[in-house]
Amino acid sequence: MSHKHALAAALALGAVTVVASQSTAAAGTSSARPGAGFRAISAGVRGSAIRIADREAEALAKSLGFGTDEKPAAKDVLVDTDGTRHGVIAIG
Fold first, then answer.
1. Which of 28, 46, 49, 74 could pair with 54 in a Cys bridge, judged by C-beta atoms 3.0 to 4.6 Å apart?
2. Keywords of this protein's UniProt record, alphabetized (predicted)?
């Protein structure tokens, strides 16, 4: 794995870690916004969101200069209570 790809993978993992730690930290403090966090989505909405994330991941991988043998794949999608979508992407 090249340095560029290792950096991209580390950043992606860091973003997922930050989201998880912020969610758990906010839940235990008095400064947490009511309703902050992730909301439940139906299986159909989740499947559609993963397909969209897959399409976006491919464009992102190209913009970062990933090779044609490095295929991004959306593994999951989380949706904030305000509707912001977060994709969990793996590079294979």
1. 74
2. Signal
Residue 16 belongs to a domain: yes
pLDDT at res. 22: 45
pLDDT in tens, 15-60: 444 444 444 444 555 455 666 688 889 999 999 999 998 888 888 8
Domain count of the fold of the chain: 1
59, part of any domain = yes
Single out the residue of 84, 82, 88, 81 nearest to residue 53, CA to CA: 88
Quick one: what percent of the chain has pLDDT higher than 90? 12
Backbone angles phi, psi at 28, to 5 degrees: -100, 10
Spatial contact of 33 and 23, defined as CB atoms under 8 Å apart? no
| 57-64 contacts at long range (C-beta below 8 A, 24 or more positions apart) | 57/87, 57/89, 60/89, 61/91, 64/4, 64/8
